[in-house]
Amino acid sequence: MLRTALRPTILGQPTTAARFLLSPSTSLSRSLSHSARRLERQPTFTTPIEPVKTYTAQDAAKPLPPTDLPVEDYASPLLHTASFFHQLFRYAVFTSVGIVLVGVGSVAAVHAWVEKVELAGGSIEGDAESDPEGWGEELEGWSGAWRGGGTDPRLGFFARAAIRGAWISQHWGGGIVASPVSQTQQALRTSNPTGNPFASSLGGTMIGGKSVEQPSLGTEVGDAGWRLAESYLVYALVRAEKKGVSLVFPEGHERGTPQSHPTSVTYTTTPGGGSGVDRAAVELEERLAGLRERIGGRYKLEEAREGWERIYYALSASAEPTGWETREKLRATRKLGELSARLALLWRAGTEERELEQSKAEGWLLGGLLPVLAKADRRTLDRSTLAEDSSSTFKKVASPISSFFAFWSRSHPSSTASSPTLSTIPTPSSPSTPLRPELSTLVNLLTTHDSTTSPLHPATYRSIIASLISLEAQLARQHSLPAAHALQSSSLHFTQLLLPHSPTTPTPLPTPTLSSSSTAIATASHALTHLHLATRTSVLSTHLAEVSLALRLPSTEAFSLSLLQGSINTTESVLHALESSPLLKVKSTGWSSSREKILGRAARQVQRDARVTGAMSANLVGLVHEMGPRATPSGWGRGKGKGKKEESEWYGGPAVAEAFYAKAMEFAKGDEGKSGEGEDVQGMRIAREGFERVRGKVLGEKKGTV
């Protein structure tokens, strides 16, 4: 019954009995009635808040439904890591590509600069208007100088890149990896000037005494850049040979002897001019031989000589040599003679090996000079000609151009009066030692040469004079002083005949530009040739004065001082003419025109040679005045007996010696007095030592007079 009373009605409201049972009090009844009224409201759709579930141990043992399992997201960390490494990879790839591009671009830019700027310039064959005197042929060619500069396109990409790499390594360097000269060798060189032919007569301090011994050391220079450049050039020559660019090396000749010439060879026309000789290959062989000569050491010097031998025999095989082949052949013989002389110094004095190398050096130099001069004078070289020249007696007369005596035939008297300033100077008697047939022929060719009718190019004349200076210096080093004296005198006469004006009055030097006319370029080129020849007359005059002093000829001091004073005056005039020319401001590298670069380099070379020659002459004058008059053998000069002193009107004492040593330091100090920039280190050292010596004597004399 109770369940029936408590059952709700259909409408959801309780009965009266239920209300009574459930609410024993009136307040309870009110609240129930109030709740009933409240339940009569319409229900809302608000989602009730779920109560917090509490789990017990029994509930934990039951498995949860799939919808209630926790969700773990592994994709987000993986994607984050992958994104990080992707960005890192992109940065690495882009940075690497950028570095590679910058590196490749830098290498390409450097090679382009070297090709178009550093190696630009040169004498284009057949272009006489841009280079009438052939100054461009004296530039270092790197397989393309004969084409106007750069490298030869026929060599291919790798060979051309190797050539440019060799230039970069040689000029920009790789550092010194080993000391080329030790302290012991340096002390030995400075204390043993036995290679100087004037050391025995003038106390071992004559000009060039210590520099002669400098190349005698067999130590190689350990420059990494030079070594790398040598490797590049060897590789370039191998690649060039595969491209068909190589020297035609005739078979059947004996290497090492200048007298062995090929008799027959097959010729083919090759680029670069000439029959059978490729000019690009000649330039590469010259660069490799020159680099090995610079490195030094017996092994490298012998390799350099072999390279010049290949060049010489290839050029000698030409049936009709062109002008450039003649000049390159002269250069090859000169380098072969100089290398043989350096190799001779590596052997002890008096040994057969040294005498053999010295004879080779003399033979190479004579073998290059005699054929060129004989062909220019239309003479043949045979045994009868040599015998006739050796039997001739050469006597001293005044030169047609200057008062410097030369060995001139009696059948060619002077047609021009001698200079009044030098005609009163007594000249020493020439030594009466007979000359060998080859030297006699060379002296005769030099004294009878007519430059007005000669077909030789000015560049060929410059090569001849360079070989003459090398030969007379070699004779002096071999203590063949009479032969050196004869050759110096005839060479001085030969050089003076080539000068259009007096060497002490050089013409002004104009500056050609890209817009300059061919006339202005020719004028500047001729002026440079004049200055170059004037400098060479100064060199030969200084050497002649040295040998005259070493021979102790009568009245030799006065004669030698006149030669040296003329040399100083000439070098001062040359330097004055060059200092007023803007050509010296033209850089050898950079954005300069080919004409300006060629003439600018030649002007700087002439300036450097003039300074070295001036320092050498002034040092020698200072030494003569410092030493004072010497005793002469009986019958020489005005002394009546052995041991008599010469008259010393020329003697100026320590004060004059001090002034000339100071002048020598001015010559040797270089550009603007900056150390290392064109400074003549050898001349500066000799001048400073001499100045310090005589300075003490001058101060002592002043104190004594007080």
UniProtKB/TrEMBL annotation:
Spans through the membrane: 88-114
Organism this protein belongs to: Leucosporidium creatinivorum
Disordered: annotated span: 253-276, 413-436
Top-rank taxon: Eukaryota
UniProt feature, compositional bias: Polar residues: 257-270
Record flagged with keyword Transmembrane: yes
Keywords: Membrane, Transmembrane, Transmembrane helix
Protein name: Uncharacterized protein
